[in-house]
Structure formats: structure tokens, C-alpha cells
Here is the input.
Amino acid sequence: MTLIKSISGIRGTIGGKAGEALTPLDVVKFTAAFGTWLKRKNPETLKIVVGRDARLSGDMVSKLVTGTLQSLGLSVIDLGLSTTPTVEMAVPAEKAAGGIILTASHNPIQWNALKLLNATGEFISGNDGEEMLQIAENEDFDFVDVKKLGTYAQDNTWLQKHIDLILALPLVDVEAIKNKDFKVIIDSVNSSGGIAVPMLLEALGVTQITKLHCEPTGHFAHNPEPLPENLTDITNAMEKGKFDLGIVVDPDVDRLCFMCEDGSPFGEEYTLVAVADYILQNKKGNSVSNLSSTRALRDVTEKAGGKYYASAVGEVNVVTLMKSSKAVIGGEGNGGIIYPELHYGRDALVGIALFLTHLAKAGKRISVLRKGYPEYYISKNKIELTPEIDVDGVLEAIKKKYSKNPINDIDGVKIEFDKEWVHLRKSNTEPIIRIYSESDSITKADNLAKKLISDIKEIVSGK
Here is the structure.
């Protein structure tokens, strides 16, 4: 059983002993800590928005969370089955002090989590998270008396509001999408995307929709992370039928990937590349992704006359850099689209609308669109070290060895070799260095990783 307490939220497996998993006691404790932190931050705004994905533990966890918040005197607006981006948009619109999304995102069925939002509907900062964790550690909460309990209200209108706001975006062309009469198949892994994605497609004028794993039962039909090895069902269905494209989202609908008409993956890394290409064709500006995302975004951005910026890994870091660099598009290579004209959060729904507009206006099959982008391949590896090894010292030695190359050390060490790169990040929980590398072939990317692994072994052995 696992419980992970981080600045961005509380994540764990259901069942087991308190303090070792996401048990009811832990749910109440950390909800009380966050609610207390919100009250201190916004004493005049005693309102909070809650929403969840469809995982099996969602209803149970939601009852614990909403009851705890009411016991602190906070009034709860419960969106019920929803998406992460929908809750993010609802928080500022409802003038709430913050929000909690009950989802473990792409984690398997036994996991759940409390994702914590501030008053702008964005994930809380590192400093804010530390304050909240300290409140939890000290159990420094004070519950209100019976006459001051918070109210509880359900609101199932927000998915439609979210979709309406997407349809109103100038770069979403409903007529162009409708005229193409796309034949689409969706895999929503039996979570809330099974409700949200068909609603969006119908609003965009798509009439030929085949639903795969779209019943929001929480019984995930496969590993919920939208990687090619987990998507054999949609691949097989596309090989048998005639579809223009496939759409896959994760349980809370903040990650998005597409399948080409032959059932082959468009590439999770290329979701952001394609959407950015469309945005930058129509609006001059900059882009942001994290250090471990494909170089193709930089190529597309520079071709359009913009500047590309790389942030530390993590959505909070991407958003912070997007704001300071005035980026018009950004996100993460895991299929996370952040379109600031709508809101500062990864949003698969706006990604679908923008991508379908791009595909319709390009007048190409999706596989042809994909071939028009720079071809890069990422290799993901790791090296396990013994606990007594100074991992920071190893990374410093790598920096020194490659000091003549362009290096970015805001999050581990990223070294550039012309159009290749390698990114080394240490784990915060175990003596591991994760090694991501990218080149124009998977063999070259693998070899680059092997070279760095060899360098690390030499440094550790003192040769």
C-alpha cells in the first residue's frame, strides 16, 4: 500500500493502514488541512468546488471530502462526475477559494488522489503545498460548531459550460469540422471522458461516433495511461473498421492522444506539436513545454517565428513559464495541451476541438498530417544506484564532462547535442537517475542513453 504526500496533492492506494495508504482517515486529515489552508488564505470566500473521475473509489472518497469541508464551514459545489479541466475552470467562475479534484489521473484502478487547486483554478504552488502539509502534520485544524456548517450543492451544468466556452474560441471552427463529417472512434477507459468527449464531439457537429470503453463505471478496461502498449482494443477496432481518426483520453481527461486512420499511434508527444502548429499559424507567439518533451515543438515554433521555452517537469512549472514568456500555447509531451485563451490547465477537450479544426482545415488524412512534422524518437531509461552514492555529485560530474555543450540545469541536467538531447533527473524517493534521450531514430536515442549510462558508471566507479 502506498501514500504519497507532495506539494501538488495527496495520492495513494485504497485500503490498508492509516498513514500507509489513502485510507478514510488520511482523506479526512488532508482534506481538513487543505480546507484550513484555504480559509486562512481566503477568509472572506468560504466556498470550494469538488469534482471527480469515475474510478471505483470516487464516490466513497467524495463523501468523505465534502463532509469534511462542510465541517470546516466551507460551502461545497459538487460537480460530481467531471474532468480535471472542467473543475479548474469552474473554480474562478464560481468565485470559489479553491478546488479539489478526486482523481489519480493515469494511475491504475486501486489509486485515487486529492488534486488541489487555488482560487485561480490552477494547481497550488510549492510554497502553498508546504504550508498545507505542515497543517496536516500538526493536525492544526479547528472544526466549526453545528450552526456554522457549510452548505452542500450539486451542479451538473459545468461540462456543458466548459464545452460552450470551447465552442466560442475564435480558433475552433465548428463549421469546418462539421463539413468534414469525420468518422471517429473514442476510448475513454470507462471514466468521465466517456461522458465529456461524446458531448464535445456532438457539439462540434461530429455525427459518426463509435464509443469504446465509454461507460463511466470505473472498471478500467486496460491500463489507463494512454500509451501504445495499452491501446490494443482501439487499434484492433480501427484495423477492422473505417475511421478517420481515433481519440484516447485518460480517466480525468487532461491527457490526449490520437490514432491515425490505420490504427497506428499519432504519437502522444505530437499531440501538443500538432495543436501548437495550428495555433502558431494563426497567432504569432511563443510556446512552452517541459525539458523531457520532444524537440519537435521547438522546431515548429521557430519555423512560425516564435520562441520556444523549456520548463522544469510538472504542470505548475509549465504554467509559470508560459505566463512569464507570454506563450500562446504550451503543455507537456504526455498529451497535455494548455491553451491560455481558455485557461491555464491541461485540457484534452480543448485539444480535441483545436486538433479537429486543424485537421479539417489542412484537408489531409491524419497520417499525412503527422508525416509533415519533424521526426524524433524518445528513449526512456533509468539507472539504479546504491543509497550511499551522492546522486547530486554524479550529476555535477556529468555537467563538468559536457560543459562545452548547451546545458540546462533547472531540473536535473539536460545536455544538447545539435538536434539530439539527453535529460537526467534524479528520483526524489529512491536512488535512481531517470534518463530521457531524443534523436531522429530510436536506435540513436537508445545509444545516446547508453553513452550517458556508461559515463555515470565510470563516475561512480571513480575511473
In short: DSSP finds 15 helices and 20 strands in the chain. The radius of gyration is 22 Å. The chain has a mean pLDDT of 95.
